[in-house]
Amino acid sequence: MARLSRGGRSGGRAGNARRSGPAIKQMDWGIPLNSDMPTTPLPPEGVEAMHDGAMRILEEIGIEFLNEEAALILKKAGCTLNDTNVRMDREFVMEKVALAPSQFKITPRNPDKEIIIGGGHMVFGNVSSPPNCSDLDRGRRPGDRAAFQDFLKFTQYFNCIHFAAGYPVEPLDIHASVRHLDCLYDKLTLTDKVTHGYCLGSERIEDAMEMVRIAAGLSDEEFAQSPRMYTNINSSSPLKHDWPMLDGLMRMTRRGQPTIVTPFTLAGAMAPITMAGAVMQSVAEALAAIVLVQCIRPGTPTVIGSFTSNVDMKTGAPAFGTPDYVRATQMAGQMARFYDLPLRSANANAANCPDSQSAWESMNSLWAAVTSGTNVVYHAAGWLEGGLCASYEKFIMDCETLQQMIAYMKPVPCSPDDLAFDAIKEVGPDGHFFGVQHTQDRYEKAFYNPFISDWSNFENWEDGGSVQTPQRANKIWKKILEEYEAPTIDEAIKEELADFVARRKSEGGAPTDF
Predict the structure, then answer these.
(1) Which of 126, 133, 323, 481 has its CA 20 to 30 A from that of 350?
(2) Cβ(291)–Cβ(263) under 8 Å?
(3) DSSP 490
């Protein structure tokens, strides 16, 4: 029988074993279920006041819909249209929002990687859209396709990452007219998880839907029957939705694919300086687009997003992972539950390197997600510089934190065996629990075991080279890339994808402004 042991210099704590084999021992794939009661900073009357204020924005001020087709759809449904300004009454809003499901599934080309959105379920996606990337060896640099592919491999490798969100770094070495084609090809062949398409012009989102359909081996009818991918749109705060985002939302909706609507409301800049006012404005902006979805195709899944934070009032720079950000996310959670909609938030920080600031701001952001009842966590791994940089080391560090959050959310069993009365009786007041059978039977799996933390004592840590967390993460990501294996895909489907990419490139891809 294996026994507990102690070691290390001078009887200190045992150092981490020198690993051979896999880069890390990670959690199995699974969709976490958060059973905690959400934190509620707003009293019931505060929720009602915020709802009333959001409705007044929609009724009295209106939202600019800078897309004529979208504006006319809302006018036909009964809204008031004045040029591009759309106003809608609260009864109409509540009737339409009620059509959106509170929970739904998205099934990628590998059905074993299906995810659940809503209820107490919580899913995590990779960092999205930074133009730069960094690692300890090569420093900070513009994103390219090689780095883009590396981050996709991390996304596929980690079981705590449930979906492949937007581009984990922009591959700036690919021309913008065809970038989406190469990126979607890489996402659909290097990963088999739920993927995302950008609403950046009609061609890009149509190509994305077609490529996801091809990758899953579906007919047009089968693709439109249930969610197979998703998109995320942002309002142009304050109080605007722009043309390309609305165009993509409408195209996705007509084919039954879900949209996450996420206003980017920075308190003191694009929203009131008070967090309650900023959240209220965000709710109004999001509901306006959700109403449009339900006018086009009632019952289409839609997620309300929260990305409300404050700015540094000395410089105007965005701040993330602050106490204000935490409270704003928790308030957004209350409002999402009021409207019975799934909620999206983010793991954000404003640090410039994978240091202590990046860790505590990310922990605050993730704790905000857990305590708010968030269902979809964007940018869950790899984000730095307020979203301007994707970090190799930070991706690894974040996945450690995600695994710890998932371990925290596991149910706590309370059977007679778990209560361990007999073990307590056996040990009594003068013994210890190391040697009793109850401990021996359970110690290997009793507690969460981190893959990046170093629990050795100071002397052992110093003897090992005084390696700090970013350096340990650096070694891990290199080994992960060595170990990475692409998920299986039918060769005929892969060839069809490649042919589609080649054809669309020959047609010019998507128009650009340059």
Answers:
(1) 481
(2) no
(3) -
Instruction: Please provide the DSSP assignment of 100-163 as one string.
Output: S-SEEEE--SSGGG-EEEETTB-EEEE----SEEEETTTEEEE--HHHHHHHHHHHHH-TT--E
Q: Indicate the length of the chain as a whole number.
A: 514
- Position with higher pLDDT, 250 vs 3: 250
Between CA 388 and CA 372 the distance in angstroms is 26
Closest CA to 229 of 252, 245, 247: 252
Q: Which two tokens stand for residue 269?
A: 């800049």
> Which residues partner with 103 through β-bridges?
118
Q: Is the overall model pTM greater than 0.90, yes or no?
A: yes
Strands 85-87 and 63-65 come out as antiparallel
Helix axes 179-190, 491-506, angle to 10 degrees: 170
What are the φ/ψ torsions at residue 75 (nearest 5 degrees)?
A: -60, -45
Neighbours of 358 (CB within 10 A): 24
Domains of the chain (ranges; CATH) run: 96-409 (3.20.20.480)
- pLDDT tens, 215-244? 999 999 999 999 999 999 999 999 999 999
User: Residue 238, preceding bond cis, omega within 30 degrees?
Assistant: yes
Query: 3-state DSSP call for residue 233?
Result: strand
Q: On the CB side of 265, how many CA atoms lie within 13 Å of its CA?
A: 33
Residues 301 and 388: their CA atoms lie apart, in Å, by: 30
**Partners of 63 in the β-ladder:** 86
- Helix, strand, coil in percent for the chain, rounding step 5: 45, 15, 40
